[in-house]
Design a protein that fits this description.
about 210 residues, alpha+beta, six-stranded antiparallel beta sheet, three-stranded antiparallel beta sheet, 5 helices
Length: about 210
């Protein structure tokens, strides 16, 4: 069945070209910025999830990635946020061509020096998230909560060489003093820390545990 979104023009500048990813929170399309003739990626919030709470979470994801992408080259960079004509929130990201770590591990044996370089880059991206963002004068750490091989994209950067990008902050938690932790499990069971599986309060150690499993 043909995707009716293919060829669609968003905000008079982003033309959808191909569906390249689908998850619980949304769909990702390869697109073209028609004014700059440049490739981008567009992520839509899944229509079935649209309510005020999910809109807020989706916007938080976009804002977090925009700010964190400025701090670390190891976090996917968000470029824009908008709402489509049919009231579906979306945000625009840099378009990255590469293989996620789950695919790479099936295709190759990774030598120790390469592994250490990749691990250092993932740690660098997580450090930027855990150091947090300043919101209303307060520093609010961000916990990803879903670190796993499929959320770690390995790309070949012509200037920096092989680069690992952390993807999908869709269930990230913004830690604020006046905000309690979620009381239910969110994440991927095989990579989640014990406290995450039990719905307990989380710290950055939950992401570090997940990275250790990876």
């Amino acid at each position: 069945m043909t995707d009716p979104n293919i060829g669609r023009l968003l905000s008079d500048r982003y033309q959808l070209m191909e569906l390249v990813g689908r998850g619980a929170m949304g769909r990702v399309y390869r697109a073209r910025h028609v004014l700059l003739d440049a490739p981008v990626a567009v992520k839509f919030l899944t229509q079935a999830l649209i309510n005020e709470q999910m809109r807020d979470r989706f916007m938080l994801e976009a804002r977090a990635c925009f700010s964190l992408g400025q701090k670390s080259r190891n976090i996917v960079q968000v470029l824009d946020y908008d709402i489509s004509d049919d009231e579906i929130p979306f945000y625009v990201m840099e378009f990255l061509e590469g293989r996620d770590l789950s695919v790479l591990l099936k295709q190759e044996i990774i030598p120790l020096p390469r592994f250490l370089t990749m691990a250092h880059q993932i740690c660098s991206g997580l450090q930027a998230a855990h150091q947090g963002l300043t919101i209303d004068g307060k520093v609010c750490p961000i916990i990803h909560r879903d670190i796993k091989p499929s959320n770690l994209l390995v790309v070949q950067d012509p200037e920096r060489g092989e680069t690992v990008k952390i993807l999908d902050f869709g269930i990230a938690k913004l830690l604020q003093d006046d905000q309690g932790q979620t009381s239910h499990f969110m994440g991927t069971l095989a990579y989640s820390s014990p406290e995450q599986m039990e719905g307990k309060e989380l710290t950055s150690q939950a992401d570090i545990y997940s990275l250790g499993i990876v």
